[in-house]
Design goal:
Length: 328
């Protein structure tokens, strides 16, 4: 009886040992030799939804084929990430890291885009025993170290080649390359500024035209001519406030003369309510009790004040905490 149990367990172990990727994931269609690799271990981290797979192969597996298989598993089973470790049998001919360097960088770019590994595309490597010196021909070594890209690269190399390497990032830039890089960055900045100014001008002109169109559509007598208001561009460096203050909120007296009846003032305000509201583009009359101040007269000791004028631009942004900030 005991001998039969041992034989059954041995057969089960033999079956598990011989299971390949094509046997377990039969719906994965590929012509690559990765389908013949034996699955040695499967480990699922439920909290992070990460699947770790250890495979064994007697043939070298192209790095791009590893990524295709990982992509299939992510789309098929909705994992957040897949980590594949490869164990090659002895005497298996493998491509060197120098030969596969760009493919390794592309593999990392797919898996860890936030680490910005594509900055390493313009780089050369030198391997001394278990140390890899990466000489970058562009700036960014400190940035990649802050992103821990070098540590991710060490882990990827261990999974692909089964060897622990120490990665050192170093900038090796000639003076000519520095000048070209600085010129490229400056051109990008100038182009970005031009695009922002151009888009802002177009937005302002469209807003002004829409306001003018709305003003012209208001019903007026046929014999009354519409007044044209010359409004200068907000982006003009010589911009000044228009001389015509039509549309601005008129100041009203905040006190009641002694000889005037309070009830008469109340009735007059009700009768003129519609006329006052038409002068506003947006909002309603303020009920603030503070004295209205001019911006140029504001000091640090004023405390709470009231400003009155026309809103020419506004922007609302939501912060990471969910609050909203309004810039007027």
């Amino acid at each position: 009886m005991l001998q039969n149990e041992v034989e059954v367990k041995t057969e089960k172990k033999q079956e598990q040992k011989n299971k390949c990727i094509k046997d377990i994931f039969s719906d994965y269609e590929t012509k690559s030799n990765i389908k013949n690799a034996e699955i040695k271990e499967l480990n699922l981290i439920k909290k992070k939804s990460i699947l770790e797979i250890t495979i064994k192969s007697d043939e070298y597996i192209e790095i791009k084929e590893i990524w295709y298989f990982e992509k299939f598993l992510i789309e098929r089973f909705k994992f957040t990430n897949i980590n594949i470790k490869i164990e090659y049998q002895e005497n298996t001919r493998k491509k060197s890291i120098e030969t596969e360097w760009k493919n390794i960088i592309c593999y990392m770019a797919h898996k860890y885009p936030l680490a910005k590994p594509l900055l390493l595309m313009k780089s050369d490597i030198k391997i001394i025993e278990n140390e890899i010196l990466v000489k970058m021909h562009i700036k960014g070594a400190d940035f990649l170290r802050a992103k821990k890209t070098d540590k991710e690269l060490e882990r990827v190399l261990k999974n692909l080649y089964g060897i622990e390497y120490k990665v050192e990032l170093e900038e090796d830039i000639e003076e000519k390359e520095i000048l070209e890089y600085d010129k490229h960055v400056k051109d990008l900045e100038e182009k970005a500024i031009e695009n922002i100014i151009h888009n802002h001008k177009e937005e302002n002109y469209s807003n002004i035209n829409s306001k003018n169109a709305n003003t012209n559509n208001i019903g007026t007598p046929n014999n009354q001519e519409n007044k044209e208001t010359n409004i200068e561009s907000f982006n003009d460096p010589d911009y000044k406030m228009p001389d015509n203050l039509e549309g601005y909120i008129e100041e009203h007296q905040s006190y009641i003369p002694e000889e005037t009846n309070q009830d008469d003032i109340y009735q007059e305000d009700l009768s003129n309510k519609e006329t006052i509201e038409q002068n506003y583009i947006m909002g309603k009359p303020t009920k603030a009790k503070e004295k209205k101040e001019k911006i140029k007269d504001i000091t640090a000791n004023d405390g709470r004040i009231t400003l009155e004028g026309r809103i020419i631009a506004q922007e609302v942004r939501e912060t990471k905490t969910g609050k909203r900030n309004a810039n007027i």
